[in-house]
Specification:
With 207 residues, the protein is an alpha+beta fold. The chain contains one helix and 14 strands; from the N terminus they run ββββββαββββββββ. Strand 5 and strand 6 form a beta hairpin.
Length: 207
Amino acid sequence: MGFRFQKRVSLGGGLGLNISKSGVSPSYRTRYGSISSRGFSFRTGIAGLTYRSGFGGRSRKGNAGDAILLIFAAFWLCIMAILLVLKLFELLIWLLGELVRLIQRMRYRYLIKKEVEKFKDSTIVTVLNFQADSLPEEMREMKVFFQGALVDNGSIVEKDQEVATFVVSDKIGRMHANKAGKIKFAKLPGDRLKVGDCVCLIETIMG
């Protein structure tokens, strides 16, 4: 029995070089095992129990062990492939849902834009615009976003009733109805608000 010298130099990403008196050989390690030009090992998940096999001539017993290992590896790959397909399916469903919501938002904006143009000079419908004086002076140059409605679309509101909220920086502001009547919002949550933008229509004469 003599001295045995062996050292491994890591190259990163699981790759490394095994240095021993017989030469230098590359290897690749993962949490499931390792493989090199001389053979491979596989961790069974049981503490202290590892399967090892070398390349080259093998006994029938070694071949049987390799076959079991290959079957287990194939089974594991199938499980991983199924999980990957399920994740891709979930991603596809999410993307389709986002696309539907985007189309709905675009259609709503198109229809409400036509309605705003139709009633902008009407005495029947009043337009509630976003005004700069609803913001403190130091915030008037900041981006403002429509946060959401405080009443249902199509409901009846009173004059000066709080109908919507907006966000600027980390502050929340509130908008009030300028007339009494049936309300219809022109903005959706998350929409950018600029001075003069129509926030909602209020039908002041109802049948």
